[in-house]
Amino acid sequence: MSVFDLQCADGEITRLWQQSITDELVDYIRIPAKSPHFDADWAGNGYIDEAVEHIAGWCRRQPVEGLQVEVVRQDSRTPLIFMEVPGTLDDTVLLYGHLDKQPEMVGWSEGLGPWQPVIRGGKLYGRGGADDGYAAYASLAAIGALQAQGVAHPRYVLLIEACEESGSYDLPAYIEQLADRIGSPSLVICLDSGAGNYEQLWVTTSLRGMASGTLEVEILSEGVHSGYASGIVPSSFRIARQLLSRLEDEASGRILPEAFHAEIPAQRREQLAAVAETLGDGVHTAYPWVEGARPVGDSTLERLLNRNWRPALSVIGAGGLPGIDSAGSVLRPGTALKLSLRLPPTVDGEAATAALKQLLETDPPYGARVQFNAEASASGWNAPLVAEWLDQACQRASNAVFGKPAMYMGEGGTIPFMAMLGESFPEAQFLITGVLGPKSNAHGPNEFLHLEYAQKLTTAVAAVLAEQAGQARPGSRRQAA
Ligand SMILES: [Zn+2]
Fold first, then answer.
1. Helix (H), strand (E) at residue 89
2. What is the pLDDT of residue 421?
3. Residue 119 near residue 127, CB atoms below 8 Å
């Protein structure tokens, strides 16, 4: 068995990024492969399939020994790329990513656009490059670098799904169908997460869950002159506000019902205190504030706890409100608001969604017709205790590649797959990391992939894979620390 040479691997990976992966991602950004929630006719439009073929095609061309690339399909579901690299060690590592994208969103800067790849200042702008198109390329590149050096390694399974941005509702069926071929991984690697800066390896220790849906308030069967109706007919907007106040203190943003809160584990608090120390004001200055605006909370630690371990409401869409240009003086018949309630990692998504529905629908003000149409919920995820070997592998990889230690931080976002996997493989260790650092703005305008960071992260993943392979012994299961 040969020893892994990190410098040599870094050279290979850098070359691959510069000669091939970056160009592939440029073409991938041009494909408007919006997730099914944002493109109801995704099957007819064919963009998801185009993205699948684009990524699978590149993977098939890689000189990875024994690599099998298969596009798996179940009738009306989004397809899934399943890849397998046979190993010489009796162990399985699962690597996960997704290729479906968020919708366009407005506010892109001059010269940039969601389906218009632009490289500027070492950043590749465009939708989906960082979230999460690069993952399939980076995962296979890391495996390839390991294999090129003849390192004995376990079996690798790669899952690239096309439904993540819609809550991964197609994924469980595939996991079930492929259960035997996936096996029971001892390590799961996911490259769809965040980074606190672009200077070290960031390991995600928790993800928030989500309860979402549309709150509909109807008070009239048709609109009426607001001079004639206001003061007698209550405004549906005011009723919606009143209902939201059951959920949220509008002055502080605190979510009121205890059911949506969870106890914050002491270890997570300590880790976030270390992150607060490292990033300081960088945690809030990373956002595109307007001049003079201030963040929530009165310390960096409080803000990190808010984003990782406390529930928070966002109103992400509205119905029943005409655009400003066509707004007449009318008391409108109804108001609909699309709500997204992020949940602490350990709160059950389904139970929270049911509680939200009850909270909003019970005893409607003025007898208005109030309905909360829930969408599929998602539970968050809290990582199991990190095994000693994995912690050390991450620290060594980060120090070697970036010259700084690895950091542990929770993420405010949701990756539904993690909760599913955590349940399916309670014994597995997890390395959840990603390139979504300051201003990378996944889901918003001006999303970018920080190319140098993505390249270095690929090398860091290869280093962790090499250490994992060194841990695994033929025929014996590693013991968890
Ligand atoms: Zn993503």
1. strand 89-98
2. 83
3. no
